[in-house]
Design a protein that fits this description.
Helices cover 45% and strands 17% of the residues. By secondary structure, the chain is of the alpha+beta class. The protein has a 4-stranded mixed sheet.
Length: 133
Amino acid sequence: MIKKRKKRKKITLSEIQEKIRKRALKNSVHAINVGLNREDLVTLTLREMKQKHEIVDYLPTGRFSKADIKGIDFIVITAGKSRYEKIKISVTGPRWVSCHQKKHPNVSVLCVEDNDDIEAIGKKILVIINPEP
């Protein structure tokens, strides 16, 4: 006997965003602030890298946006040999690196530790955008 599949309710992007917002509210305020501080440091680093012409540009994704849901915090634009390249980056702390890599394998993970400064973060970003063979 063949069983009929249950019909699944289609879920909209706004419903997904609301679920993620609720889950984020359950997290401690401290953890949320640490994450936002990491992203602010990366923004400052990318701004400096753009001024030094180490990257062409960068785009931060909005909080709870489609890209953010896919694990992308920033899109870094670099000049390749024949065209521009977009590199997707997820910002996280050391405890969450492997989790992010498993959940979003097509997104580069930038691990920002508590003692990292703009220079250290810049070096990590350069490793991501210019991986050695």
